[in-house]
UniProtKB/TrEMBL annotation:
Residues spanning the membrane: 12-30
Name of this chain's protein: Phosphodiester glycosidase domain-containing protein
UniProt keywords, alphabetically: Membrane, Transmembrane, Transmembrane helix
PANTHER family given in the database record: N-ACETYLGLUCOSAMINE-1-PHOSPHODIESTER ALPHA-N-ACETYLGLUCOSAMINIDASE
InterPro entries recorded: NAGPA
Residue ranges of every copy of the Phosphodiester glycosidase domain listed in the record: 175-354
C-alpha cells in the first residue's frame, strides 16, 4: 500500500513539473525586463511605449499561463485524489478477500466446538472457551488466536529452577489473562524440577537432553507457532528456534495423523484428568483440559479418547501435557476446571496468555 502511494506522488510531480517550470521561467523573464527598464539611462518615448506594450502582452500571457497552470494543477490534484481513493478501495477489497479463507476456516473449526461460553479479545490475542462433554468425560476447550507471538509465554515456578507454584499464582504474579499447566516434573531434595529439556526465553534451562523413551518437547518458536516432537540432538531442535517449551509424554497427533500411544500410557492410568495442547493448520491453538475426581484411573478421559477427539476437531499436531492433579485451566482470574486434588497443585512450568 505504501509503495502504491509513492508511485502516485511521483506521478503527481511529473504531471505538474512542466507547468511549474514554465511559471518560474516567466517570472524570471519579467524580473529581467523590469531591471532593464529601470537601469537604462535613457530610453526614447517610442521605444519605451513599445516596450510597455510588449511588457503588457508578456504579463497577459503570463497571467493566462498561470491560470492554465492552476487549472491543470487542480485537475491533476483531483485525479490524484480519485486515484488514491480508488487504490485505497482496491487495497481494502484485497485485504477483505484475503481474510475470507481464514474466516471461513475459523467458522468451520469453531462450529465443531459449539458455542463459546466465554471470550477474551484484544489486539494481541483472542481466547474462546467451550465446554466439552461427549458423555464419558467432561472438560473444557480453549481456542487461542495469537495475534502477537509474545501474547503467550512460559513461566518457571517462582521464576527459579526447582521452584513451584500453582497456575493461578503464576497467572496472578505475571499479570496474565489465562494459563495452563505445562510439562512434567521430578521432585528432589524438597524441590520440584522441570522434566528433561526445558527452554525459557530461547535458552536451555538445564541444557539439552536427547529425547528418550516416550518423552517429547513442545513449545513455541519466535514466530509464535507451536513446535514439538522428539529430538535426538540439539541441532535439530535449534533449527526450529524454540522460544520456550517443556517436556512430557506422549505425542498424540503429528501432521494431522494419530500417533501410536505407548502401551504403558494406555493403562497407567486408564482414565485421568488431562491437559493437552495442539494447533490447527492456521496456527491457532487448541487446549483441552479434562476433569476427573481422582487419579486412580476411574475418572477423566483416556488418551485414545482425547486423540480421537482432537483428530475429529481437525487439529494437526497435539501433545499430552502433565495431567492428574496438575491439570489446571485459569481464565480471567478464576479456576475454570475442577482439580482432582480439590485444590490446585504447585508445578514448575506454566504456559501463560496475555491480553
Amino acid at each position: 500500500m505504501i509503495s502504491t502511494k509513492k508511485k502516485i506522488n511521483r506521478f503527481f510531480l511529473l504531471a505538474t513539473g512542466p507547468f511549474l517550470g514554465m511559471f518560474a521561467f516567466m517570472l524570471f523573464s519579467f524580473q529581467s525586463m523590469h531591471v532593464e527598464v529601470h537601469t537604462a539611462s535613457y530610453v526614447p518615448k517610442q521605444t519605451l511605449a513599445a516596450q510597455t506594450v510588449q511588457l503588457k502582452q508578456n504579463l497577459d500571457k503570463a497571467d493566462q499561463t498561470v491560470k492554465a497552470t492552476i487549472s491543470s494543477i487542480r485537475k491533476t490534484s483531483a485525479l490524484y485524489k480519485q486515484t488514491t481513493a480508488a487504490m485505497n478501495a482496491i487495497v481494502k477489497t484485497a485485504q477483505t478477500q484475503a481474510a475470507r479463507p481464514e474466516s471461513i476456516y475459523n467458522r468451520r473449526i469453531s462450529g465443531k466446538l459449539g458455542t463459546p461460553f466465554e471470550r477474551v479479545e484484544s489486539s494481541r490475542i483472542r481466547i474462546e472457551l467451550y465446554r466439552v462433554n461427549p458423555g464419558v468425560y467432561q472438560g473444557y476447550a480453549m481456542k487461542v488466536k495469537l495475534k502477537d507471538p509474545d501474547a503467550m509465554q512460559m513461566a518457571l515456578g517462582r521464576d527459579k529452577v526447582g521452584g513451584a507454584e500453582t497456575t493461578l499464582q503464576a497467572v496472578s504474579r505475571k499479570g496474565a489473562v489465562a494459563g495452563i499447566n505445562a510439562g512434567g516434573f521430578a521432585d528432589s531434595g524438597g524441590k520440584r524440577y522441570p522434566l528433561s529439556t526445558t527452554v525459557l526465553n530461547g535458552k536451555y534451562v538445564n541444557g539439552f537432553e536427547p529425547s528418550f523413551k516416550d518423552l517429547f518437547f513442545v513449545g513455541l518458536n519466535d514466530a509464535g507457532r507451536l513446535i514439538g516432537g522428539k529430538f535426538s540432538n540439539q541441532a535439530d531442535l535449534d533449527r526450529l528456534k524454540p522460544r520456550f517449551g517443556a517436556t512430557f509424554v506422549p505425542v498424540l497427533l503429528k501432521n494431522g495423523q494419530p500417533m501410536p500411544i505407548p502401551e504403558k500410557w494406555k493403562t497407567s492410568p486408564y482414565r485421568a484428568p488431562r491437559t493437552v495442547i495442539g494447533n490447527y493448520k492456521d496456527d491457532q491453538l487448541l487446549i483441552l483440559v479434562v476433569d476427573g475426581y481422582n487419579e486412580s484411573g476411574s475418572s477423566g478421559a483416556t488418551l485414545q479418547e482425547l486423540q480421537s477427539k482432537l483428530y475429529g476437531l481437525g487439529v494437526m499436531d497435539a501433545y499430552n501435557l502433565d495431567g492428574g492433579g496438575s491439570s489446571s485451566l485459569i481464565v480471567n482470574g478464576r479456576v475454570v476446571n475442577h482439580p482432582s486434588d480439590g485444590s490446585l497443585r504447585p508445578v514448575p512450568t506454566h504456559f501463560l496468555f496475555f491480553k
